[in-house]
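anyone seen this seq b4? input:
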Amino acid sequence: MKAPELPTIDQWPAMGPDDLIGENTRLLQDLAAANARACAARERLARKEADLRAVLRNELVASKDAIAAMERQHEVNIAMVRKAAQIEVGRIMTAAREAVAQRAAGDVPDEPGRLNDVG
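predicted toks r here
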């Protein structure tokens, strides 16, 4: 809303004391109303900012919780992979020991393509 143009000094109508008091009162009321509107606007803005901060804070907490859950799952996955690797290494080592023991006992012929030890 555009403010009305104010008359220049020579355009002001001649006013009596009562008119000046009335005009002053009207201007003070307009000023008080404008200040009240500005205060209300600041309060609305503060409420909106507080609401927005609360939403952002909740999103941040949810994100941190999600990341923490992912990290826990990652640790579980790593532990599972390590355990599976340990089991596989144990299986391979057991099979190798058995193969060595069988060869040492002469129970298993040498694998094709493998050179026999010549003593």
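The chain has a mean pLDDT of 88. Residues 18-105 form one domain. kinda curious what u guys think
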